[in-house]
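Trying the structure run again after the queue cleared.
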Amino acid sequence: MKQIFLSTLIVMIGSTILSAQSPNIIVILSDDQGWTGSSRQMKSTLNNSKSDFYITPNMERIATNGVTFSQGYAPAAKCAPTRNSILTGQTPAKTLFTTTGNGASSGEILNAPTISSSIEDSEVTLPEIIKQVAPNYWSAHFGKWHLGNVTPDNHGFDRHDGTNGNEVGNAADGQPIQSDPKKIFTITDSAMNFMDDAVNNNRPFYMQLSHYAVHSVNEATQSSFNLCSNAALRPPGATHNDPLYGAMTEDLDKGVGLVLDKLDSLGIANNTYVIYLSDNGASTGQSDNHPLKRGKTFLYEGGIRVPFFISGPNIPANTYSNIPIVGYDLYPTIVEWITGNTVAVPTAVEGTSF
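Done. C-alpha coordinates:
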Protein backbone atom coordinates (compact mmCIF):
# COMPACT_ATOMS: atom_id res chain seq x y z
CA MET A 1 0.00 0.00 0.00
CA LYS A 2 2.87 2.34 0.90
CA GLN A 3 4.52 1.69 -2.49
CA ILE A 4 1.27 2.40 -4.34
CA PHE A 5 0.80 5.64 -2.39
CA LEU A 6 4.36 6.79 -3.11
CA SER A 7 4.05 5.90 -6.79
CA THR A 8 0.79 7.82 -7.03
CA LEU A 9 2.36 10.78 -5.23
CA ILE A 10 5.34 10.79 -7.59
CA VAL A 11 3.02 10.75 -10.61
CA MET A 12 0.97 13.61 -9.14
CA ILE A 13 4.08 15.69 -8.41
CA GLY A 14 5.47 14.92 -11.86
CA SER A 15 2.19 15.98 -13.48
CA THR A 16 2.16 19.20 -11.47
CA ILE A 17 5.72 20.06 -12.50
CA LEU A 18 4.94 19.23 -16.15
CA SER A 19 1.84 21.42 -16.00
CA ALA A 20 3.81 24.29 -14.50
CA GLN A 21 6.43 23.96 -17.23
CA SER A 22 3.93 23.52 -20.06
CA PRO A 23 1.76 26.63 -20.14
CA ASN A 24 -0.67 27.17 -22.97
CA ILE A 25 0.00 30.21 -25.14
CA ILE A 26 -2.65 32.18 -27.04
CA VAL A 27 -1.65 35.09 -29.27
CA ILE A 28 -4.59 37.23 -30.39
CA LEU A 29 -3.49 39.54 -33.20
CA SER A 30 -5.93 42.23 -34.29
CA ASP A 31 -5.59 44.00 -37.63
CA ASP A 32 -5.13 47.78 -37.91
CA GLN A 33 -6.16 48.53 -34.33
CA GLY A 34 -4.70 51.74 -32.95
CA TRP A 35 -3.17 52.37 -29.55
CA THR A 36 -6.39 53.99 -28.38
CA GLY A 37 -8.61 51.50 -30.21
CA SER A 38 -9.99 49.91 -27.03
CA SER A 39 -11.53 51.07 -23.75
CA ARG A 40 -8.41 50.10 -21.82
CA GLN A 41 -6.40 53.15 -20.80
CA MET A 42 -3.00 52.48 -22.31
CA LYS A 43 -0.98 54.72 -20.02
CA SER A 44 -1.95 54.98 -16.37
CA THR A 45 -1.22 58.72 -16.23
CA LEU A 46 -2.82 59.68 -19.56
CA ASN A 47 -6.61 59.85 -19.49
CA ASN A 48 -7.00 60.17 -23.26
CA SER A 49 -4.96 57.04 -23.97
CA LYS A 50 -8.14 55.06 -24.53
CA SER A 51 -11.13 55.36 -26.82
CA ASP A 52 -13.86 57.83 -25.95
CA PHE A 53 -16.43 55.71 -27.83
CA TYR A 54 -15.52 52.02 -28.25
CA ILE A 55 -16.35 49.76 -25.28
CA THR A 56 -14.22 46.58 -25.11
CA PRO A 57 -14.70 44.83 -21.76
CA ASN A 58 -12.92 41.63 -22.82
CA MET A 59 -9.78 43.39 -24.00
CA GLU A 60 -9.93 45.17 -20.66
CA ARG A 61 -10.35 41.76 -19.03
CA ILE A 62 -6.99 40.58 -20.37
CA ALA A 63 -5.36 43.82 -19.25
CA THR A 64 -6.87 43.88 -15.75
CA ASN A 65 -5.86 40.24 -15.26
CA GLY A 66 -2.31 41.04 -16.31
CA VAL A 67 -0.02 43.77 -17.58
CA THR A 68 -0.60 46.63 -20.01
CA PHE A 69 2.51 47.59 -21.93
CA SER A 70 2.17 51.33 -22.41
CA GLN A 71 5.00 51.29 -24.92
CA GLY A 72 4.20 48.08 -26.81
CA TYR A 73 5.15 48.26 -30.47
CA ALA A 74 4.34 46.37 -33.63
CA PRO A 75 7.49 45.44 -35.56
CA ALA A 76 6.22 47.33 -38.62
CA ALA A 77 3.61 49.85 -39.68
CA LYS A 78 2.01 47.31 -42.02
CA CYS A 79 0.49 43.91 -41.46
CA ALA A 80 2.53 41.24 -43.26
CA PRO A 81 5.96 42.41 -42.03
CA THR A 82 4.68 42.35 -38.45
CA ARG A 83 3.28 38.84 -38.87
CA ASN A 84 6.56 37.59 -40.30
CA SER A 85 8.49 39.28 -37.51
CA ILE A 86 6.42 37.74 -34.71
CA LEU A 87 6.87 34.25 -36.13
CA THR A 88 10.62 34.59 -36.87
CA GLY A 89 11.66 36.76 -33.93
CA GLN A 90 13.53 39.02 -36.33
CA THR A 91 13.20 42.63 -37.41
CA PRO A 92 11.62 43.35 -40.81
CA ALA A 93 14.91 44.99 -41.81
CA LYS A 94 16.85 41.77 -41.27
CA THR A 95 14.45 39.54 -43.20
CA LEU A 96 13.90 42.21 -45.92
CA PHE A 97 10.16 41.75 -45.31
CA THR A 98 9.48 45.44 -44.73
CA THR A 99 6.25 46.17 -46.59
CA THR A 100 3.54 44.44 -48.62
CA GLY A 101 4.66 45.22 -52.18
CA ASN A 102 7.66 46.13 -54.31
CA GLY A 103 8.08 49.37 -56.22
CA ALA A 104 7.91 53.07 -55.50
CA SER A 105 5.06 55.47 -56.00
CA SER A 106 5.28 57.91 -58.89
CA GLY A 107 7.47 60.90 -58.08
CA GLU A 108 9.45 59.25 -55.29
CA ILE A 109 13.05 60.43 -55.06
CA LEU A 110 14.52 57.10 -53.92
CA ASN A 111 14.17 53.77 -55.67
CA ALA A 112 12.50 51.25 -53.37
CA PRO A 113 14.57 48.10 -52.73
CA THR A 114 13.33 44.67 -53.68
CA ILE A 115 11.66 43.12 -50.67
CA SER A 116 10.60 39.69 -49.50
CA SER A 117 6.86 39.07 -49.55
CA SER A 118 6.71 35.53 -48.22
CA ILE A 119 7.97 33.83 -45.09
CA GLU A 120 11.13 31.94 -46.00
CA ASP A 121 11.25 28.13 -45.82
CA SER A 122 14.60 28.36 -44.04
CA GLU A 123 13.22 30.29 -41.08
CA VAL A 124 12.76 28.39 -37.82
CA THR A 125 9.51 29.87 -36.63
CA LEU A 126 8.20 30.10 -33.09
CA PRO A 127 5.89 27.05 -33.36
CA GLU A 128 8.74 25.08 -34.93
CA ILE A 129 11.12 25.84 -32.06
CA ILE A 130 8.36 25.06 -29.55
CA LYS A 131 8.02 21.60 -31.10
CA GLN A 132 11.77 21.10 -30.90
CA VAL A 133 12.00 21.94 -27.21
CA ALA A 134 8.63 20.49 -26.18
CA PRO A 135 7.35 17.91 -28.71
CA ASN A 136 4.14 17.37 -26.72
CA TYR A 137 2.83 20.80 -27.79
CA TRP A 138 0.10 21.23 -30.38
CA SER A 139 -0.07 24.40 -32.43
CA ALA A 140 -2.72 26.16 -34.51
CA HIS A 141 -3.19 29.27 -36.62
CA PHE A 142 -6.61 30.62 -37.56
CA GLY A 143 -7.43 33.70 -39.59
CA LYS A 144 -5.25 36.03 -41.63
CA TRP A 145 -1.94 34.50 -42.70
CA HIS A 146 -0.83 36.95 -45.43
CA LEU A 147 2.68 35.50 -45.63
CA GLY A 148 2.71 34.22 -49.20
CA ASN A 149 1.85 30.75 -50.44
CA VAL A 150 3.93 28.95 -47.83
CA THR A 151 1.27 27.20 -45.78
CA PRO A 152 1.22 27.36 -41.96
CA ASP A 153 1.80 23.60 -41.66
CA ASN A 154 5.18 24.11 -43.35
CA HIS A 155 6.16 26.24 -40.39
CA GLY A 156 5.09 24.16 -37.42
CA PHE A 157 1.31 24.59 -37.21
CA ASP A 158 -0.61 21.35 -36.74
CA ARG A 159 -3.96 22.93 -37.57
CA HIS A 160 -4.81 25.97 -39.67
CA ASP A 161 -7.40 27.38 -42.06
CA GLY A 162 -5.19 28.32 -45.01
CA THR A 163 -2.96 31.01 -46.48
CA ASN A 164 -5.62 33.66 -46.08
CA GLY A 165 -5.30 37.28 -47.11
CA ASN A 166 -7.49 40.29 -46.38
CA GLU A 167 -10.19 39.34 -48.88
CA VAL A 168 -11.05 36.13 -47.03
CA GLY A 169 -12.28 38.20 -44.11
CA ASN A 170 -14.70 40.24 -46.20
CA ALA A 171 -18.31 39.11 -46.64
CA ALA A 172 -19.03 37.88 -50.16
CA ASP A 173 -22.13 40.07 -50.53
CA GLY A 174 -20.25 43.19 -49.44
CA GLN A 175 -22.92 44.38 -47.05
CA PRO A 176 -21.88 46.20 -43.85
CA ILE A 177 -24.28 44.28 -41.60
CA GLN A 178 -23.33 40.62 -41.16
CA SER A 179 -23.98 37.76 -38.76
CA ASP A 180 -20.27 36.84 -38.86
CA PRO A 181 -18.48 40.14 -39.55
CA LYS A 182 -14.84 39.76 -40.62
CA LYS A 183 -15.26 36.05 -39.80
CA ILE A 184 -14.77 36.90 -36.13
CA PHE A 185 -16.99 34.07 -34.93
CA THR A 186 -15.74 31.52 -37.47
CA ILE A 187 -12.20 32.09 -36.24
CA THR A 188 -13.35 31.92 -32.64
CA ASP A 189 -15.24 28.64 -33.20
CA SER A 190 -12.13 27.10 -34.75
CA ALA A 191 -10.11 28.23 -31.76
CA MET A 192 -12.53 26.76 -29.23
CA ASN A 193 -12.70 23.44 -31.06
CA PHE A 194 -8.91 23.26 -31.08
CA MET A 195 -8.75 24.05 -27.38
CA ASP A 196 -11.28 21.29 -26.66
CA ASP A 197 -9.21 18.78 -28.62
CA ALA A 198 -5.96 19.81 -26.95
CA VAL A 199 -7.39 19.52 -23.46
CA ASN A 200 -9.12 16.20 -24.22
CA ASN A 201 -5.79 14.83 -25.43
CA ASN A 202 -3.85 16.32 -22.51
CA ARG A 203 -1.69 18.44 -24.82
CA PRO A 204 -0.40 21.93 -24.05
CA PHE A 205 -0.79 24.27 -27.00
CA TYR A 206 0.37 27.37 -28.82
CA MET A 207 -2.40 29.07 -30.79
CA GLN A 208 -2.43 32.24 -32.85
CA LEU A 209 -5.72 33.93 -33.72
CA SER A 210 -5.07 36.44 -36.48
CA HIS A 211 -8.27 38.43 -36.85
CA TYR A 212 -9.31 40.26 -40.01
CA ALA A 213 -10.98 42.88 -37.83
CA VAL A 214 -10.68 45.82 -37.62
CA HIS A 215 -9.21 46.14 -41.12
CA SER A 216 -11.39 47.67 -43.83
CA VAL A 217 -13.97 47.03 -45.12
CA ASN A 218 -16.10 47.73 -42.06
CA GLU A 219 -18.56 45.00 -41.07
CA ALA A 220 -20.56 44.47 -37.89
CA THR A 221 -23.52 42.62 -36.44
CA GLN A 222 -26.89 44.35 -36.43
CA SER A 223 -27.07 44.36 -32.63
CA SER A 224 -23.68 46.01 -32.19
CA PHE A 225 -24.44 48.57 -34.87
CA ASN A 226 -27.81 49.38 -33.29
CA LEU A 227 -26.06 50.06 -29.99
CA CYS A 228 -23.22 52.15 -31.42
CA SER A 229 -25.53 54.21 -33.62
CA ASN A 230 -27.86 55.13 -30.75
CA ALA A 231 -26.49 58.38 -29.31
CA ALA A 232 -28.65 58.04 -26.22
CA LEU A 233 -27.06 54.69 -25.37
CA ARG A 234 -23.61 55.39 -26.78
CA PRO A 235 -22.75 59.09 -26.98
CA PRO A 236 -20.28 59.80 -29.80
CA GLY A 237 -16.81 60.75 -28.65
CA ALA A 238 -14.75 63.75 -29.65
CA THR A 239 -12.06 61.46 -31.11
CA HIS A 240 -14.01 58.31 -32.04
CA ASN A 241 -17.60 58.39 -33.28
CA ASP A 242 -18.02 56.08 -36.30
CA PRO A 243 -20.86 53.67 -35.33
CA LEU A 244 -19.99 50.97 -37.88
CA TYR A 245 -16.29 50.88 -37.02
CA GLY A 246 -17.16 51.01 -33.33
CA ALA A 247 -19.57 48.10 -33.76
CA MET A 248 -16.90 46.08 -35.60
CA THR A 249 -14.46 46.76 -32.76
CA GLU A 250 -17.01 45.59 -30.21
CA ASP A 251 -17.82 42.45 -32.21
CA LEU A 252 -14.11 41.65 -32.17
CA ASP A 253 -14.19 42.11 -28.41
CA LYS A 254 -17.07 39.62 -28.16
CA GLY A 255 -14.93 37.06 -29.99
CA VAL A 256 -12.12 37.67 -27.51
CA GLY A 257 -14.59 37.16 -24.67
CA LEU A 258 -15.71 33.79 -26.01
CA VAL A 259 -12.10 32.57 -26.00
CA LEU A 260 -11.56 33.79 -22.44
CA ASP A 261 -14.81 32.13 -21.32
CA LYS A 262 -13.66 28.90 -22.95
CA LEU A 263 -10.42 28.98 -20.96
CA ASP A 264 -12.48 29.28 -17.80
CA SER A 265 -14.86 26.47 -18.72
CA LEU A 266 -11.99 24.15 -19.58
CA GLY A 267 -10.27 24.97 -16.28
CA ILE A 268 -7.00 26.02 -17.94
CA ALA A 269 -7.11 29.81 -17.49
CA ASN A 270 -4.55 29.72 -14.66
CA ASN A 271 -2.03 27.93 -16.87
CA THR A 272 -2.54 29.95 -20.04
CA TYR A 273 -0.79 33.08 -21.23
CA VAL A 274 -3.03 35.32 -23.32
CA ILE A 275 -1.23 37.89 -25.44
CA TYR A 276 -3.19 40.60 -27.22
CA LEU A 277 -1.67 43.03 -29.69
CA SER A 278 -2.27 44.65 -33.07
CA ASP A 279 -0.21 44.29 -36.23
CA ASN A 280 0.04 48.08 -36.67
CA GLY A 281 -1.79 51.27 -35.82
CA ALA A 282 -5.21 52.18 -37.16
CA SER A 283 -5.64 53.42 -40.69
CA THR A 284 -6.34 57.13 -40.31
CA GLY A 285 -9.20 56.77 -42.78
CA GLN A 286 -10.97 54.52 -40.27
CA SER A 287 -10.00 55.55 -36.75
CA ASP A 288 -8.04 58.38 -35.15
CA ASN A 289 -4.87 57.39 -33.25
CA HIS A 290 -4.88 60.61 -31.18
CA PRO A 291 -2.92 61.53 -29.10
CA LEU A 292 -0.36 59.74 -31.25
CA LYS A 293 0.74 61.08 -34.63
CA ARG A 294 -0.41 59.56 -37.94
CA GLY A 295 -1.24 55.86 -38.28
CA LYS A 296 -0.86 52.75 -40.43
CA THR A 297 2.02 52.84 -42.97
CA PHE A 298 3.81 55.61 -41.02
CA LEU A 299 6.73 55.04 -38.67
CA TYR A 300 5.40 57.68 -36.34
CA GLU A 301 3.99 56.46 -33.02
CA GLY A 302 0.48 56.19 -34.46
CA GLY A 303 1.70 53.63 -36.98
CA ILE A 304 3.58 51.27 -34.69
CA ARG A 305 2.51 51.82 -31.07
CA VAL A 306 -0.36 49.43 -30.42
CA PRO A 307 -2.56 47.84 -27.75
CA PHE A 308 -0.37 45.24 -26.01
CA PHE A 309 -1.73 43.24 -23.05
CA ILE A 310 -0.55 39.98 -21.50
CA SER A 311 -2.13 37.89 -18.76
CA GLY A 312 -1.02 34.53 -17.44
CA PRO A 313 0.82 32.61 -14.74
CA ASN A 314 2.71 34.79 -12.26
CA ILE A 315 1.90 38.04 -14.08
CA PRO A 316 0.66 40.62 -11.55
CA ALA A 317 -2.91 41.71 -12.19
CA ASN A 318 -3.87 45.19 -13.38
CA THR A 319 -0.32 46.45 -13.74
CA TYR A 320 1.38 48.78 -16.19
CA SER A 321 4.84 48.67 -17.70
CA ASN A 322 6.46 51.63 -19.46
CA ILE A 323 9.39 49.52 -20.69
CA PRO A 324 9.34 49.45 -24.51
CA ILE A 325 8.72 46.02 -26.00
CA VAL A 326 8.12 44.94 -29.59
CA GLY A 327 6.36 42.03 -31.28
CA TYR A 328 9.51 40.06 -32.07
CA ASP A 329 10.29 39.91 -28.33
CA LEU A 330 7.47 37.38 -28.01
CA TYR A 331 9.57 34.58 -29.59
CA PRO A 332 12.26 34.33 -26.89
CA THR A 333 9.77 35.22 -24.13
CA ILE A 334 7.50 32.30 -25.01
CA VAL A 335 10.46 29.93 -25.28
CA GLU A 336 11.50 30.99 -21.77
CA TRP A 337 7.97 30.49 -20.44
CA ILE A 338 8.04 26.92 -21.75
CA THR A 339 11.63 25.88 -21.00
CA GLY A 340 12.70 28.21 -18.20
CA ASN A 341 15.49 29.79 -20.25
CA THR A 342 16.36 31.05 -23.75
CA VAL A 343 19.10 28.55 -24.56
CA ALA A 344 17.12 27.03 -27.43
CA VAL A 345 16.40 30.36 -29.12
CA PRO A 346 18.12 30.43 -32.55
CA THR A 347 20.97 32.91 -32.91
CA ALA A 348 19.12 34.58 -35.81
CA VAL A 349 16.41 35.78 -33.40
CA GLU A 350 16.78 39.48 -32.55
CA GLY A 351 14.07 39.75 -29.93
CA THR A 352 14.77 39.76 -26.19
CA SER A 353 12.79 37.90 -23.56
CA PHE A 354 10.98 40.33 -21.30
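Residues 1-19 have pLDDT under 50 and may be disordered. Worth checking whether this holds up in the mutant runs.
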